[in-house]
Write a structure and sequence with these properties.
Number of strands of chain A: 20
Order of helices and strands of chain A: HEEEEEEEEEEEEEEEHEHHHEHEHHEHEH
Low-confidence stretches of chain A: 1-27
CATH superfamily of the largest domain in chain A: Alpha/Beta hydrolase fold, catalytic domain
Largest sheet of chain A: 8 strands, mixed
CATH architecture of the largest domain in chain A: 3-Layer(aba) Sandwich
Mean pLDDT of chain A: 90
Oligomer: homodimer
Number of helices of chain A: 10
CATH class of the largest domain in chain A: Alpha Beta
Strand content of chain A: 15-25%
Distance between the termini of chain A: 29 Å
Shape of chain A: globular
Radius of gyration of chain A: 21 Å
């Protein structure tokens, strides 16, 4: 369909290595003594803790262990030290980026989760998660505004041989139950490699981002559908990924997942039959983060009869060549949005933005300040993207 | 309100010790060599495995560990042995009861989850779970029938000082979205000690039980609301529970949680305002398992103006004394249901059933065959209880 941009492959290399957690160097020396339990701790758990600078402190009970290392905190992670009480303790060598990070423990050579905190599906497993409060966290916080609902649906899908059903989650806006006649536009929103249908409404806070935007009158109320993009099996060692170190052909691998058929033949018809949707191209958009952006690129460009808005978050760009290759693009696509974190290839996003402008394609580029290939980039991307849709 | 039945306190002692997993002795010696990955394994994970007899086999990577013990498999659990490849392996000494069991690993003296399987909230933490296929599992299986939806709601609640909102999950039956005018009865369904609002639709399969009953025409389509009963904090060491080994006053402790106000003042009005309910006593019921049964006992008996159906699953009984103490019980309550597993105090359930009958109170007693204080008892209880409601 098109040649991959060089910066796209570098983004994906980051994603494939699961290097979601990046450190930032600090000039000051002193670590502030104001550690508090992380927002994501399990009920009643005191650790892990985060301080006002973004340092993270761990406390793991395993008195007979030989070695406990946390994968957060830069190359080699954070090795913990056994204290007199048998607990292993340690603090990251530098503050973490604001936002959400996946991590796990290496205990005596095995991979386990931190029993203190909640788990989130990433890297094709349920991982520990930690949240570094961001200076702009209010846009994804639980506030005293009307709240929409997130629903689990089991939709019939031919491409699943086991039960014939697949799971997805659907956000409906706050006024959805109150007005039984109103119909709504729909955004299909994809997770990244290693994640699944849980990502956007848990670590992503897509529902709270929408609730807050709608309460402020900044976005049209619309439905958000979060499905599993079927990419994890294909990209596992032993799957369709080349084993010899060659660069994978991501487009081909995504094609082989069969998600295009799941989405177009099974999910969209189910959503249009079971929710009060505006079931036309004008009122349907697709977006995704990282590999979910690549899926969006592949599927939305092929089905411009279905989607009028396209968002790629740390997942490449809609290039002038893409536009040339897709008949009627200018007539059909109303919103083009490409984003990444400032610690990714922001220059690539901005260069492409200018090239699209020159080609007469109205589009938006967004660079998230001081974030990498991680969820704060994508929360902010959704927050910028949603207000553009369905106007 | 009433004197606790002796068998009720023994049930609760079981619950407080988290002894959810019981072994049953077997006569035969040979362990069948037909182990398969557990239904609850994380995607792509080979272990833990279950065989056709209900034995469970574990395989934990932790090459430098000194000791790995699984809490399943009777007193002392199942100690694993390190193999030549550095993995710790072992099989339960006896088959497990059919159904769902919580467990965790003790690795070098620390408490961790098995990275092979999914986690479920029980014992006030996210624990590993395993499923022993039951001979009657079809009633809670995902089958090719119309499926309802499970929705996360964020409802305003005065008793929460942090955000002012609490989370609950709401099951709506399959025809709910199709018929925008139809109104439905509601069952408020409570989890047990150590669990939360996730229990009934994950380890409990309440949604699939309802889908299957409705598809077979055995139950009226109704809404099921699954909220957090607020019992975990109160019953923690350091909470309202007596520290000196005295028997706790469960009624008093449940009162102190404030859940009665959450349910009556916040949740029921929210559900009636945001879902198409039949918002009267005739079309509202309450049930719960274990400590959720005790909550039901306390709250429903006090609010017979709100509930016409009462179900206690391994959570005590509605006794003749309860009936005497509640004015208008005979006029107002249409369904009384008490159940437990056959490995619990089934005699107590049956004796009370007869006493209620003698007192002229129509009621149902159910004893789940060959199960203890565990989720297969409660899945079966819901399956027996639901068809009685709202007829």
């Amino acid at each position: 369909m098109k040649t991959q941009k060089p910066f796209l492959s570098s983004l994906l290399a980051v994603a494939m290595c699961s290097a979601f957690a990046q450190n930032q160097a600090t000039s000051a020396g002193a670590v502030a003594d104001d550690f508090k339990p992380s927002q994501l701790n399990q009920p009643g758990q005191e650790f892990p803790q985060v301080n006002s600078q973004g340092y993270v402190r761990f406390h793991i009970q395993a008195p007979q262990a030989q070695s406990v290392v946390v994968t957060l905190g830069g190359r080699g992670g954070t090795p913990l030290t056994k204290g007199a009480d048998g607990a292993w303790v340690g603090t990251t060598a530098a503050p973490m980026d604001e936002g959400f990070h996946y991590y796990h423990l290496s205990i005596d050579g095995g991979v386990f989760n931190d029993p203190g905190t909640l788990n989130f599906y990433g890297s094709t497993r349920w991982e520990s998660g930690i949240e570094i409060p961001a200076h702009d966290e209010e846009f994804y916080s639980l506030k005293a505004v009307p709240h929409g609902q997130v629903q689990q649906i089991l939709f019939p899908s031919k491409t699943n041989g086991v039960s014939g059903f697949k799971t997805a989650y659907v956000y409906t806006p706050p006024d959805y139950p109150k007005n039984g006649k109103k119909r709504y536009p729909v955004l299909y929103l994809q997770h990244g490699w290693g994640e699944d249908e849980h990502a956007w409404w848990n670590q992503g806070h897509a529902n709270l981002i929408m609730d807050n935007l709608i309460a402020d009158g900044k976005a049209e109320p619309f439905i958000v559908v979060m499905a599993y993009g079927q990419t994890n099996d294909a990209f596992r060692p032993g799957g369709a990924r080349p084993a010899n170190g060659q660069r994978p052909n991501f487009d081909e691998m995504i094609r082989r997942t069969g998600f295009e058929s799941t989405l177009v033949d099974d999910l969209i018809p189910y959503v249009d039959a079971n929710f009060r949707t505006l079931a036309d191209q004008r009122h349907r958009a697709m977006a995704g983060l990282s590999m979910g952006g690549m899926e969006t690129h592949q599927i939305a460009l092929k089905h411009l009869d279905l989607f009028s808005g396209i968002g790629l978050f740390s997942g490449g760009v809609i290039s002038p060549e893409d536009v040339q290759g897709a008949p009627d693009f200018k007539n059909k696509v109303k919103v083009v949005f490409c984003s990444c974190g400032s610690r990714e290839n922001a220059a690539g996003i901005n260069t492409n933005h200018e090239a699209l402008d020159k080609a007469g394609i109205k589009n938006t580029a967004f660079v998230s300040p001081n974030t990498a290939h991680e969820f704060l980039t994508w929360r902010r991307s959704l927050h910028e993207f949603a207000p553009l849709l369905f106007r």
